[in-house]
Amino acid sequence: MDNRDEVREFLTSRRAKISPERAGLPAGSRRRVPGLRRSEVAALADMSVEYYAKLERGHLAGVSPAVLEAVARVLQLDDAERAHLLNLAQAADGSDALSRPRHRRAKGQWKAHRSLQWTLDAITAGPAFVRNGRMDIVATNQLARAFYRDIYATPGNQANLARFQFLDPASRRFYPDWDLFADIAVAILRTEAGRNPYDKELHDLVGELSTRSEEFRTRWGAHNVRRHGTGTKRFHHEVVGEVTLAYEGLELTAEPGLTLTIYAAEPGSASEESLRLLASWAATHEATAGEELRS
């Protein structure tokens, strides 16, 4: 796969973030551009300037793991960035199964198997849902459907968290820390693009968001990646108001590429009470909807 542009932009952007002081070098004379010079990265990684320049031009095919690790060390890549660099190298080399074309099930063609849906339905104290790397919500429990009612309210969102984030004005209310959520969404998509470079639906989504949202386009150009596993987030729900929830993201062993996310409130907190109210509202709302369908 020819991913030289992606490699070049990623390495250039990471190099620009490392100051001479952070790398243990003297600041020296005034610099025209931020970050380390190519020659400094090459010296710290114990390679020739010509060889590092070749890497930064995007030529990662055939590069040894030791060289990649040296570059990652000098550029002070975190775990997510290091994994992204390895994924880019594997895609360029074509030697890894993840980098070769493979069938990617479309969201509409996938349905949660019974035991997974039973598991989701058994989680009643907090929203729980399954998403893919494109940020499509593909399965939920009842509370998650109520929690994300803004996303489902607009068919154009297509139950996709990134579309909702950047194209639906309702996201500005739902996410009080909108900029933080926007950064996270783009970093997740950028990570997935490195992991699955042949995913056409992902390419289409990125193209759509880049065309329609300057906020997305700017963040996409930053080439930031992340592992989104645990943390705390604030939301403002239309029905119950502001809630602060912890989350855990779990990779599904039986369904590679899918992540189960579970939100939970601190025991005894106002947010826990808000989730109870939302669960009651959701049960009543679904029961009413069911009666209307039967009548």
From TrEMBL:
It comes from the Bacteria. Transmembrane segments: none annotated. SUPFAM superfamilies: lambda repressor-like DNA-binding domains (SSF47413). Residues 35-82 form the HTH cro/C1-type domain. This is Helix-turn-helix transcriptional regulator. It comes from Streptomyces lanatus. The lineage of its organism: Bacteria, Bacillati, Actinomycetota, Actinomycetes, Kitasatosporales.
